[in-house]
Design goal:
This protein has eleven helices and 13 strands. By secondary structure, the chain is α/β, with parallel strands linked by helices. The longest helix has 22 residues.
């Protein structure tokens, strides 16, 4: 079988490439390398070359039409919530028009598409009584990034109805693990971990009581692989069902890193949720998926990876 991974030089995408190669797939990667240069070594080890393309370019569609993959794993995106607030036009250009380029080409060649969405941003600030949130939670995105990810579901349904596109859509919690970029704006686990190892101060925006559902990247990859042949036309929440505050996350990481230092607090930033937590029971029923890695073990593995990068 043939598989194509958009954003395959990214954090999650590079792990997906490893899994697909290990399963015997013939793999191609589309990535503009805006943030994935440091992971090219992992792709080279896997024996996969990168087609340096932007998903908005017609060349990306032409590559899909010539390669004719059986599966497309779509990770390429503008994923910074704060950038989406500052520049919603750019966010929509990448996340909507870029996705339409991929979906249109996939429909032409009959490829199944497994897309990555946001399990926090698409729901917005939900009713606390609903936590953990299931897929029936009303969508109320309060950032342009969340809006584009919510709209993607509508386009998936459209392509299914008019061209028979097969798809599964995975709404992810806060994914963490080895290869996450500690130099980016997102990825608090990698940012805290590296700064703690280097003896640098860590900054918490707001009072630190805001919560997230942290799910290990290896578990996420298993969910995507399961969705390659199950869950037709469905959206699945992929998380642990557990809330962890930023303060608690910092405390666990500081202990793992052997650091006794308090974080520095700064004003909260626009567009960020107060709480996020996902109910993944549907993924359990239809995909046979459940999270396997507990947070302490996953954070320890992530810190160990960061040590090797130092």
């Amino acid at each position: 079988m043939k598989a194509l991974v958009t954003g395959g030089a990214g954090f999650i995408g590079s792990h997906m490439v490893d899994r697909l190669v290990g399963e015997g797939r013939e793999v191609r990667v589309i990535d503009n390398l805006s943030s994935g240069e440091q992971r090219l070594g992992f792709l080279k080890t896997a024996g996969v070359e990168v087609d340096r393309l932007d998903i908005r370019e017609v060349q990306s569609a032409k590559l899909i039409e010539s390669f004719r993959p059986d599966e497309i794993y779509h990770f390429a995106a503008q994923m910074d919530v704060r950038r989406s607030v500052v520049d919603p036009i750019y966010d929509a250009d990448v996340n909507v028009l870029g996705t339409l380029t991929i979906l249109g080409a996939a429909a032409k060649v009959g490829a199944r598409v497994i897309t990555a969405s946001s399990g926090g941003c698409i729901y917005g600030e939900a009713d606390p009584d609903r936590f953990p949130l299931d897929e029936q939670t009303p969508k109320n995105p309060d950032s342009p990034y969340g809006i584009t990810k919510s709209v993607m579901e509508d386009y998936l349904r459209f392509y299914k109805s008019v061209s028979g596109l097969q798809y599964a859509n995975l709404a992810l919690g806060n994914v963490y693990g080895p290869r996450q970029d500690p130099a980016g704006e997102a990825g608090v686990v990698a940012i805290f971990g590296l700064r703690l190892l280097k003896g640098e101060p860590c900054y918490i925006f707001g009072d630190g009581t805001q919560t997230r559902d942290y799910v290990y990247v290896g578990d996420v990859i298993q969910a995507f692989f399961a969705a390659s042949c199950k869950g037709e036309g469905e959206t699945f929440n992929i998380g642990t069902g557990l809330q962890t505050s930023v303060n608690d996350l910092y405390g666990i990481l500081a202990e793992i890193c052997g650091v006794d230092a308090e974080p520095e607090y700064k004003p909260a930033r626009a567009g960020e949720l107060a709480r996020s937590c996902l109910n993944s029971a549907k993924a359990g029923r239809l995909l046979g998926w459940s999270p396997q890695k507990n947070l302490d073990d996953g954070l320890a593995e992530t810190v160990e990876f960061l040590r090797t990068q130092l």
